[in-house]
Queue: 2 jobs
Job 1
Amino acid sequence: EVQLVESGGGLVHPGGSLRLSCGASGFTFSDYAMGWVRQAPGKGLEWISAIRGSGGSVNYADSVKGRFTISRDNSKNTLYLQMNSLRVEDTALYYCTKVRGTVSPNDWGQGTLVTVSS
Amino acid sequence: QSALTQPASVSGSPGQSIAISCTGTTSDVGGYNYVSWYQQHPGKAPKLIIYDVSNRPSGVSNRFSGSKSGNTASLTISGLQAEDEADYYCSSYKSDTTEVFGTGTKVTVL
């Protein structure tokens, strides 16, 4: 059974940084692309980023490009999202996803909440 | 990145069939057979119910079906049940190697 467990969320001031982690189990982590999707409170889903199994190819939504960095450690079965220059509008529940193909979410974690506020 | 367009809400009585549309462009829905649909109950993570336009993951009820015509994809729920009341989102692969979600549709079972 695929399990994805996010951590690292919290309260941060505008302009600050935060690193999210996602521990994966139940599948061969390095064989799959992984990604992040977020959902602002009471709002819809927004695709954020994806990274190939090898880590050699990454993609970002325009809204986070240049501020967020996705990475992975296949030896630890862990996915990361480094978030810099955070804005109030980055406040959301961040979901870790196991990807089908190159970018499409297939399995989802339960999410970790990031709140950006002064 | 503009979201795909979905109706804000759709409703139906138990046993009825409803359809949810998802309209994009030739750069996403119309250009690829990589449309997915997700069901999200309140306070829960989304769950994949349709992938690659019309395929159901193992364990998903066959009451859910997907199709596509041109730039518009559709999700049909047949034999509507109380447990189907949830938010539904479509998504599509895009030409710039990203993914775009729909605006979301709230399904109400009357």
Note: Chain A has a mean pLDDT of 97.
Job 2
Amino acid sequence: QSVLTQPPSVSGAPGQRVTISCTGSRSNIGAGYDVHWYQQLPGTAPKLLMYTTSNRPSGVPDRFSGSKSGTSASLAITGLQAEDEADYYCQSYDNSLSGWVFGGGTELTVL
Amino acid sequence: EVQLVESGGGLVQPGGSLRLSCAASGFTFRGDWMHWVRQAPGKGLVWVSRVNVDGGIKAYADSVKGRFTISRDNAKNTLYLQMNSLRVEDTAVYYCARERYYYSSGSDAFDIWGRGAMVAVST
């Protein structure tokens, strides 16, 4: 069981919008620690996709956006493309564990 | 080019030891905190360990505490993970990752990742 909870899978047709949720608790997201998102394409290493909730590293298209409220965060992807098929992970810090925590990952399928 | 390259993975029996290395290039390694993150086959990412810039401050996940040791050699731009008393459940791809600290929010993300080294613990 991961400390941060994500849906195992989401799907959408090309051009559609999907969201991926990340639910934490008062010891991580709810304690004010920021959320970061990673994209892992099949057979590759994770890549930083979104940092400090809603900031995109250079090269990440603005189709990706992030938000946070209370003990949860969300990643939204608009204008879905086939190349977006990947696993997505949220990450934060947990002060009760004194360590960095990830969500269990969400597999995105583009129909 | 900014790069992290892991090596040292392999097959080991339960109770055995293995040392992973992570060679850094393209950035000032001695100025960055570094981490190890692992991913069991078909599973999600799990944080393993972290070390500060001079190797004096270390942190470990409970699952590896007392068995794994993180270290670094800034002269060689290399991060290490010494893994002892290995268990079947330690089987995973091990990634080294650079920590990026964001002063605006006081949080850390992993902004550079290596390709990973596979560690298989089995009889």
Note: The CA atoms of residues 28 and 94 of chain A lie 4 Å apart.
